[in-house]
Design brief:
It comes from Aspergillus bertholletiae. This protein is of the alpha+beta class and 426 residues long. It is built from 11 helices and 11 strands.
């Protein structure tokens, strides 16, 4: 046997003892057993828990799934509600986005015994411009809203009403004589910043008084009213029968002016002998009290404005400061006092007529197949004049589209010589 080397001499005694035991103590032919050396200095790692076998994790996962399902259900409900709201807005035409469908081709109707007068280029092409008898035979004018799609270009209204015998709610008798009124212009009354449509309003003038309206407009253009004067019959104004292009533009500017428009329109409609009317058709269900409050606010606002102007001028007296004006305003309020006449459903017609002496007659026409009903009369012409000015003059009018349309209509009148808008061969 070789003597032990230096390497063996340095090996630990414990290792040598284990080798001798494995060599001499193992049974012959038996496979050697694998051994692992374990140390007491190394910390044993704990096996991680299986999340699928953890009851706490399972409950949390079920709660998360339930929350996800609730979120999906709420999202689906929100989508359904938004879709329903959009459909409702479109169907109700809240913002007035729907326009009328394509216009039907209009053919000229030649009436027996009538002389046709061709207007200048562009006259009558806009549906808001006045329809001249015999020009195109149009019967309906597009309003621009699908709720009340059209307005008649010509209506028939009573020529005179006996307010002494008629009571509020009475039907206009069939024996009452009527006459034709021609459409000047129309527009939509909207409220709030959302432009919610309330009603369609159109201004009409009696055909027999179109020449009178022409003369007043021409005189106004030739001799505009000053600060202290109305329409004055000067030599030029009396002889003028129509307006040239520059005069028409000047007149249009006066009629649309936010400051001078009040006195210009006031001079045109104040005098006797001019019968006009406003036709009002709600685009949604409303009531007389709501309509009345809007008119009363406009009347009192304009009256207070005129009173303030008169107060600023020494010795001036406003025409709206006396007690009779307050009495007339109360009479106007009583026309729409409610009761059986409280509701005004969508599509029914309200008519405000200004007679030859400025008296205001209110008619209600709920059923086209039945006669209109008389609501009452206010004899003081100041009331009807202020109601008319609410639609025609000033910075803030009840319907800007109606004001623009009416001005376009009267521009069509002054383009032609006085007395030639409606003319028949006798």
């Amino acid at each position: 046997m070789r003597p032990p080397t230096s390497k063996m001499q340095g090996a630990p005694l414990r290792a040598c003892t284990q080798c001798i035991r494995r060599q001499y103590l193992c049974p012959t032919g038996a496979a050697p057993t694998a051994h692992r050396f374990l140390t007491t200095t190394r910390t044993l790692r704990s096996a991680p828990k299986n999340p699928l076998r953890n009851s706490t994790s399972s409950r949390a996962r079920e709660a998360e799934i339930a929350r996800s399902k609730n979120s999906m259900a709420l999202s689906a409900a929100g989508i359904v509600v938004c879709a329903a709201a959009m459909y409702g807005v479109i169907k109700l035409d809240v913002f007035g986005m729907d326009q009328a469908t394509e216009k039907k081709n209009e053919v000229e109707v030649q009436k027996e015994g009538a002389m046709k007068l061709d207007g200048p280029d562009g006259f009558g092409g806009n549906p808001s411009v006045i329809r001249v008898q015999g020009q195109d035979g149009a019967e309906e004018v597009s309003t621009g809203t699908s709720t009340i799609p059209t307005f008649p270009s010509v209506i028939r209204l009573p020529k005179a009403l006996d307010a002494g015998t008629l009571k509020a709610g009475d039907e206009i008798p069939d024996s009452a004589e009527d006459e034709e009124y021609q459409l000047l212009g129309l527009g939509i009354r909207t409220v709030s910043f959302l432009k919610i449509q309330v009603y369609v309003v159109g201004m009409y003038v009696a055909k027999s008084d179109i020449s009178e309206l022409q003369q007043r407009l021409v005189r106004t253009a030739v001799n505009p009213p000053g600060e202290k004067e109305g329409v004055v019959d000067s030599a030029g104004a009396a002889s003028a029968t129509s307006l040239v292009s520059t005069e028409r533009q000047a007149l249009k500017g006066l009629l649309l002016d936010g400051e001078r428009g009040d006195e210009v329109w006031n001079a045109v409609i104040k005098g006797d002998g001019l019968k006009t009317a406003f036709r009002i058709v709600p685009t949604r269900n409303t009531d007389f009290l709501h309509l009345r409050d809007g008119w009363v606010r406009g009347i009192t606002g304009r009256a207070q404005k005129e009173n303030a102007k008169a107060k600023a001028l020494e010795g001036a007296q406003s025409e709206f400061q006396d007690e009779s004006f307050g009495t007339a305003l109360n009479d106007f309020k009583s026309l729409f006092g409610g009761g059986q006449r409280k509701n005004v459903p969508k599509g029914q017609t309200l008519l405000l007529m200004r007679g030859a002496r400025g008296e205001l007659d209110a008619l209600f026409h709920p059923d086209p197949a039945q006669p209109a009903r008389f609501l009452g009369r206010v004899s003081d012409e100041r009331i009807s004049r202020l109601v008319w000015l609410n639609y025609l003059a000033g910075k803030d009018v009840s319907s800007e589209s109606a004001r623009q349309s009416v001005v376009d209509g009267v521009m069509g009148i002054v383009e032609r010589p006085v007395g030639t808008v409606v003319q028949k061969v006798v």
